[in-house]
Amino acid sequence: MTRSIGRRLLLAGAATTALLTLSVFSGSAIASAAPAPATTAAASKPCGDPLTAHNFGLILDGACVEFLNGANGLSANQITLYRGVAGSQAFSEFIFTSAWNPGVRKNISVVLLDYQSNEVKRYSLRNAHAISYDINGTVKLQFDEVIVS
Questions:
Q1: C-alpha angle with apex 59: 128 to 62, nearest 5 degrees?
Q2: Tell me: the pLDDT tens digits for 56-92?
Q3: Neighbouring-strand partners of residue 109
């Protein structure tokens, strides 16, 4: 019985290798002959992730760098952001740099997204810097001005 299972695994591996080899060679010929795909509407979304829906996206230096689990407390020129487990290196560096040096400030946007990752509302925070951060991923930012669009 173990001999027949081993033989089946060997045949399955050989078949998989053959199919992958065939798809690589046929795919490369097709890819070189095919024109470049046109820009789609999904590429223009601020944080378009086709696999999951998120409520908030964080835009730093003109690019969406991470999704947020939540944002609240937009008052007294402060906002609290709740980061997810997949935090970006760019935002982490900004948090720690600006927390140690309040002179380091950036314009940041928090974008409210619908279930298809379309932008619903944007909160543009001018001259933002981090004033607190905890191990759970909660970041409190202070800013000079907010523009809602």
A1: 100
A2: 999 999 999 998 989 998 889 999 999 988 789 999 9
A3: 59, 124
Length of the chain: 149
Distance CA 95, CA 86 (A): 15
**Type of residue found at 19:** L
Q: Which of 89, 98, 97, 79 has the alpha carbon at shortest distance from 138?
A: 79
The tokens describing 72, both together, are 């609240």
Tokens at residue 111, please? 């974008």
Task: Give the residue among 47, 45, 49, 70 at the shortest CA–CA distance from 57.
Answer: 47
Q: What is the pTM of this model?
A: 0.65
* Banded pLDDT at 8 (limits 50, 70, 90): low
Written as six digits, the tokens of 140 are 């409190």
Cβ(67)–Cβ(54) below 8 Å: yes
The number of helix segments (H) and strand segments (E) in the chain equals: 2, 7
